[in-house]
């Protein structure tokens, strides 16, 4: 607990970020039930205003269902370029003001103010930073100040929208105790259902369960859950560095004109870095393919796409690029795939025009890859290349 005693972490979260941006662009939407997301029959809700939430609408819900629940809601097609632009604006304000911060998502930040209490005062500093963000971006933002990332995040969620709160060191358990267990990050529906069946409804009750019992019930996650329920979190604030691209290349053992083999390699490579993209909670807006021929001459081509992290979309774009690029019919020595124009975002809520079924499929696939390794689950068309890496001459 010595580490926590010396820390002051502010968690800042832009209130209904997508909706707030749309309200800036169209002030007539303010105070109205607003749905942001895909406009197709299979689109999902990416975000919704607080007025829409009163009708039971939430992120990830099929757009058609949301429109039935609130027939008078304003539906706006998502514009990720605009959201990314406003996110960069807020990021720049924070970057200019504080020495150490973590950008957890497109609209969420952790700021390490450790030591600031001796000079300026962490609460006053956080309050002035909030006012500057509102002044320069026009967006509403809330923050929670506490001794660690966990408590500051929960505090922010409790005070939204347009709120601020400080949880002094030593008061973490007092603050968390009356809250529902579902307010603890990491407690999903499955774990929550198990605990609720046992009569564990509040964080206070959860914190009093012996750690061995939680381990027997939930395995290793039970140990971490016990720490969270007691307000303990020693995770550091990870310094923000904007990654420009994600890429991979493959040099063949034998130069080849075997198009089937090359396509298999491209599928495997695209799947690999698309998974990495989703792990980093990012989307790409530009795809590039590189070819190096046997004479070492190298060519590259790229295309701008709608922001995505879905394998099926990216694989199709990579194939199109390769087809248009490979015109010489010479032996190929190397192929490469690169994603650029990266922005924060998650495929669960940001793939605006995809169906719930495709979202759940990708979530399930990523869960298996995270547990057992990406090589244990891949498309059959890409698996052939892995099993037989030697191309036909």
From TrEMBL:
This protein's GO CC annotations: cytosol
Residues the record lists as binding Mg(2+): 13, 107
Keywords: Cytoplasm, DNA damage, DNA repair, DNA replication, DNA-binding, DNA-directed DNA polymerase, Magnesium, Metal-binding, Mutator protein, Nucleotidyltransferase, Transferase
Comment on bound cofactor: Binds 2 magnesium ions per subunit.
One Pfam family this sequence matches: IMS
EC id: 2.7.7.7
Cofactor: Mg(2+)
Main location: cytoplasm
CDD domains associated with the record: PolY_Pol_IV_kappa
UniProt site (Substrate discrimination): 18
Top-level taxon in the UniProt lineage: Bacteria
GO molecular function, one term: DNA-directed DNA polymerase activity
Subcellular location: Cytoplasm
Active site as annotated: 108
GO biological process: DNA repair; DNA-templated DNA replication; error-prone translesion synthesis; SOS response
PROSITE patterns hit by this protein: UMUC
Reaction(s) catalysed by this chain's protein: DNA(n) + a 2'-deoxyribonucleoside 5'-triphosphate = DNA(n+1) + diphosphate
Domain UmuC: 9-188
Matching NCBIfam families: PRK02406.1 (NF002677)
Purpose of the protein: Poorly processive, error-prone DNA polymerase involved in untargeted mutagenesis. Copies undamaged DNA at stalled replication forks, which arise in vivo from mismatched or misaligned primer ends. These misaligned primers can be extended by PolIV. Exhibits no 3'-5' exonuclease (proofreading) activity. May be involved in translesional synthesis, in conjunction with the beta clamp from PolIII.
Entry's family note: Belongs to the DNA polymerase type-Y family.
Subunit structure: Monomer.
Annotated HAMAP family: DNApol_IV (MF_01113)
Name recorded for this polypeptide: DNA polymerase IV
């Amino acid at each position: 607990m010595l580490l926590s005693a010396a820390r002051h972490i502010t968690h800042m979260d832009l209130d209904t970020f997508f909706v707030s941006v749309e309200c800036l662009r169209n002030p007539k939407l303010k105070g109205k039930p607003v749905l942001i997301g895909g406009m197709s029959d299979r689109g999902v809700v990416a975000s919704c205003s607080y007025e829409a939430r009163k009708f039971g609408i939430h992120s990830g819900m099929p757009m058609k269902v949301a429109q039935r629940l609130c027939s008078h809601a304003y539906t706006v097609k998502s514009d990720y370029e605009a959201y990314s632009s406003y996110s960069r604006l807020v990021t720049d304000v924070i970057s200019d003001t504080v020495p150490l911060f973590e950008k957890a998502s497109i609209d969420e930040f952790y700021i390490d103010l450790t030591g600031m209490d001796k000079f300026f005062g962490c609460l006053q500093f956080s309050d002035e930073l909030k006012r500057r963000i509102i002044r320069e971006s026009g967006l509403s933002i809330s923050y929670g100040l506490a001794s660690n990332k966990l408590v500051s995040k929960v505090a922010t969620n409790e005070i939204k929208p347009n709120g601020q709160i400080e949880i002094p060191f030593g008061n973490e358990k007092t603050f968390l105790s009356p809250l529902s267990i579902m307010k603890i990050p990491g407690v999903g529906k499955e774990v929550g259902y198990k605990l609720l069946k046992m009569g564990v409804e509040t964080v206070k009750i959860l914190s009093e369960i012996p750690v061995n019992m939680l381990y027997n019930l939930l395995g290793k996650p039970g140990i971490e859950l016990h720490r969270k329920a007691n307000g303990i979190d020693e995770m550091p604030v990870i310094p923000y560095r904007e990654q420009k691209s994600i890429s991979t290349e493959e040099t063949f053992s034998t130069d080849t004109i075997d198009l089937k083999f090359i396509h298999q390699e491209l599928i495997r490579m695209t799947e690999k870095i698309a998974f990495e993209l989703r792990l980093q909670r990012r989307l790409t807006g530009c795809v590039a393919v590189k070819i190096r021929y046997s004479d070492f001459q190298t060519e590259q081509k790229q295309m701008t796409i709608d922001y995505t992290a879905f394998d099926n979309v990216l694989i199709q774009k990579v194939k199109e690029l390769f087809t248009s690029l490979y015109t010489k019919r010479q032996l190929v020595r190397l192929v490469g795939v690169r994603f650029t124009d990266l922005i924060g975002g998650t495929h669960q809520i940001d793939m605006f025009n995809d169906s719930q079924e495709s979202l759940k499929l990708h979530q399930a696939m990523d869960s298996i890859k995270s547990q057992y390794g990406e090589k244990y689950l891949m498309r059959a068309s890409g698996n052939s290349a892995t099993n037989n890496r030697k191309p036909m001459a």
